[in-house]
C-alpha cells in the first residue's frame, strides 16, 4: 500500500532528523519505506501492512504539524490517536486577526490554557499555523477537542476548565464523559 502527502518545507529537517535518524526510526518501527522528495515537498510511505502505513503516516503528519518526533512516536501505541482541528473551520469571522486571537485563547497566557488542557486530559497538543493537533487516547482527545472548541467559541477559560474537570471526574467515576 502506498500513501502520499505533502510536507511543510519548515518541517523537512525535523522529519529527516540528524543524519536521517528520525526517518530511519519511522521505517524501522513501522516496517514502511519513507521516501521524502524535498524538491516537490511530497512524502511517499509504502508498506505491505495497512495498519503500519496508517501508523507511519500519522507519525509523519504529527511531525509535519509541529510535534517533536518523540511525541509523534507515541502514535506507535495502537491506543493513541492523532486528531487534527483546522481552527479556520471554527471561526465565524475568517481572517488572520481572528485566527490569531482564537489561537491565543487556546494557548493562553504563557501557555497556561494549553498546559491545563494537556494535564487534565492526558494529551499532547501542538498549535501550528491554523491547526491544533492532539495526541492521546480516545477519551482524552475527546475532552481536549471539546475544550478547544469551547475556547474557540469564546467561552471564558474558567468555564472551560470547570467543564474539563467535570468531564474528567465523570469519566473516572462512572465510565462516562457526560
Description:
Helices cover 51% and strands 18% of the residues. The chain is α+β, with helices and mostly antiparallel strands and 178 residues long. It folds into two domains: 75 residues, Ribosomal Protein S8, Chain: A, domain 1, CATH 3.30.1370.10; 94 residues, K Homology domain, type 1 (Ribosomal Protein S8, Chain: A, domain 1), CATH 3.30.1370. Strand 2 and strand 3 form a beta hairpin. Helix 5 packs across helix 7, helix 6 runs antiparallel to helix 7 and helix 7 packs antiparallel against helix 8. The longest helix is centred in the last third of the chain and has 18 residues. It is globular, with a radius of gyration of 17 Å. The model has no long low-confidence stretch (mean pLDDT 95).
CATH class of the largest domain: Alpha Beta
Number of strands: 6
Provide the gyration radius in Å: 17 Å
Distance between the termini: 39 Å
Could you describe the largest sheet, including whether it forms a barrel? 3 strands, antiparallel
Shape: globular
Number of spatially distinct domains: 2
Q: Averaging pLDDT over every residue, what do you get? A: 95
Poorly predicted ranges? none
Structural class by helix and strand composition: alpha+beta
Strand order, main sheet: write it out.
1-3-2
CATH domain topology of the largest domain: Ribosomal Protein S8, Chain: A, domain 1
Give, in order, the helices and strands: EHHEEHHEHHEEHH
CATH architecture of the largest domain: 2-Layer Sandwich
User: Number of helical runs?
Assistant: 8
Helix content: 40-55%
What is the assigned CATH homologous superfamily of the largest domain?
A: K Homology domain, type 1
Binned strand content: 15-25%
Amino acid at each position: 500500500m502506498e500513501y502520499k502527502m505533502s510536507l511543510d518545507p519548515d518541517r523537512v529537517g525535523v522529519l529527516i532528523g540528524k543524519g536521517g535518524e528520525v526517518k530511519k526510526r519511522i521505517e524501522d518501527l513501522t516496517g514502511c519505506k519513507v521516501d521524502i522528495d524535498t524538491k516537490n515537498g511530497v512524502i511517499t510511505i509504502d508498506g505491505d501492512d495497512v495498519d503500519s502505513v496508517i501508523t507511519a503516516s500519522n507519525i509523519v503528519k504529527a511531525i509535519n504539524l509541529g510535534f517533536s518526533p518523540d511525541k509523534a512516536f507515541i502514535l506507535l501505541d495502537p491506543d493513541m490517536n492523532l486528531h487534527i482541528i483546522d481552527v479556520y473551520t471554527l471561526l465565524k469571522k475568517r481572517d488572520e486577526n481572528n485566527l490569531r486571537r482564537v489561537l491565543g485563547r487556546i494557548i493562553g497566557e504563557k501557555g497556561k490554557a494549553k498546559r491545563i488542557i494537556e494535564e487534565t486530559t492526558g494529551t499532547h497538543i501542538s498549535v501550528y499555523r491554523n491547526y491544533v493537533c492532539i495526541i492521546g487516547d480516545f477519551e482524552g482527545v475527546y475532552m481536549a477537542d471539546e475544550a478547544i472548541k469551547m475556547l474557540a467559541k469564546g467561552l471564558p477559560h474558567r468555564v472551560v476548565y470547570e467543564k474539563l474537570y467535570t468531564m474528567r471526574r465523570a469519566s473516572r467515576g462512572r465510565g462516562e464523559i457526560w
